[in-house]
Amino acid sequence: MPLLSIRNLSVxxxxxxxxxxxxxxxxxxxxxxxxxxxxxxxxxGKSVAMLAVMGLLPWTAKVSADRLEFDGRDLxxxxxxxxxxxxxxxxxMIFQEPMSSLNPCFTVGFQIREAMAAHLDLxxxxxxxxxxxxxxxxxxxxxxxxxxxxxxxxxxxxxxxVMIAMALACKPKLIIADEPTTALDVTIQAQILDLxxxxxxxxxxxxxxxxxxxxxxxxxSQRVCVQYAGQQIEMxxxxxxxxxxxxxxxxxxxxxxxxxxxxxxxxSIPGVVPGLADRPRxxxxxxxxxxxxxxxxxVPPPRAGAELGFALCHTPLxxxxxxxxxxxx
Amino acid sequence: xxxxxxxxxxxxLPTFVALMFVTFVAVRxxxxxxxxxxxxxxxxxxxxxxxxxxxxxxxQPVWKQFLDYAYGLLHGDFGVSIVTxxxxxxxxxxxxxxxxxxxxxxxxxxxxxxxxxxxxAAVKRGSVLDHSVMTVALAGYSMPIFWWGLLLIMFVSExxxxxxxxxxxxxxxYYFEPVTGFMxxxxxxxxxxxxxxxxxxxxxLPSIVLGTIPLAVIARMTRSSMLEVLGEDYVRTARAKGLxxxxxxxxxxxxxxxxxxxxxxGLQTGTLLAGAVLTETIFAWPGVGKWLIESIxxxxxxxxxxxxxxxxxxxxxxxxxxxMLYVAINPRIRHG
Lengths: 329, 336
Prior knowledge:
heterodimer, A: alpha/beta, Rossmann fold, 6-stranded mixed β-sheet, 5-stranded antiparallel β-sheet, B: mainly alpha, MetI-like fold, 15 helices
């Protein structure tokens, strides 16, 4: 049984201009100790889907799903109190902006020990010892002194290490990392990512890595889930996805990787992600898809089977060639 | 830190000089002088008027009067009241505890109600609760103090008979010598049964009246500050730890939201000390405000000048304390 199991997750925000569906029918299974990547452009609903799992969305968001289970428990029917017992202990999250994700009014030590105080039955001294141990684990020198520091005294990379330490504090079963390196300097990005991967390997914690860096995906994850405009459009084991992407969007995304480009100009995907007002009737990617047909523009696409990476497409690609669904099926 | 205090104190010196000048001039711009104010309609013989003016030094050129006054101030001499013939400082120190007691109670009332109201309104933004809190706050802010005071006296004291109408103490039933000047403390020290209750009862309405505007300001400030903070990433982090809503809002968010509120509270404290004038007059509260109003009608120049200088000094001191407090609650400044 998977650690995290999501079926048909949808999140709708009520906005002044009417409801906006930020996440539309996402499925995801994460096994214990597995590393799954979620990729997509900004606004594709990656973060929102995972915030929904954490229960951290604002009140304007409405979450619905056929199944939303973590560790055998249905997150949709849990009371807020029961859910808080899971969140922060078994299920932790690392955010994109480490500098603003730490509370400026409290010391680093206070913020690390706080989660332990809430969830674990440890004495004050034990919590302090564990906090020191955690800072050592994430590679922060002079941990005792650093615990007394305030967040504004730390660099971005340091802050993200603290965030990682905080996430690890209660020995979680699953960590969701929401673009943990995006806000950092390029030189620091690699360090933080290496740290995260090392800790994941060593502790065997499950990791959902939200990113838009395909290079990171290729190097790290076992499985990839590709999202576009709130929809999950493809999910495959990483090697399969890089070898033979089935959705035209995934294919275009991979073709835009600098290391794959053959010509002098880097290929790009024309157009932008549809917004609230300009959603196409059929496939959401059809306005930008070079394989789009009239069917694509008018009829929402069906989901393909596992052999075609669950691609949400009328004409999934096989070796770069569009297949008619009847033939593929 | 010490350097910071020193700099701030040094900065207040020009303020004092300007204040000294302004009060001195403004007081003399009011038509009439102390002698005329005292003789009133009866009139007075010109020779006698000149003699009395000479006694008070009012026949000197204004610039000389000012220099004499400034010289006295520099030596800690606030002058002697023309009316009571007692030193202004002495009179002020007797009356000030009453004002301070009232101001502190009003401030406590404003903070204890204002901050939770602001927090609740922010957490439940857009709700009926939010709208009602903000409407009441706006009403409180716009309410003329004297009218609000009279309304409360009419309804609570007269109609319901719940509280005394005016004064600090029920002098018919209780009498004791002031020790600290704070009625709440003195009534306890006196050991007389019921005296403390009477002191509290006398404080309720004036505190509400004086605290209404600060309450409205604090509630609105807390709400807007809280709304901003609730959207911050670190509040989401706190929730991601599985902390209770009470801890997330009451500790992680409020601690940050309070930073601007402390500034506002500080400014309001100054207003409370200086602005108790109306409230003290309505409730016949024997404090500094009432004394100043009376000094104006008596043209008691030294009392007015001294009183205003002393209140200003206290307001400046309070602001200095607030600045220090600000540093204490905001680590970013402390280590900045």
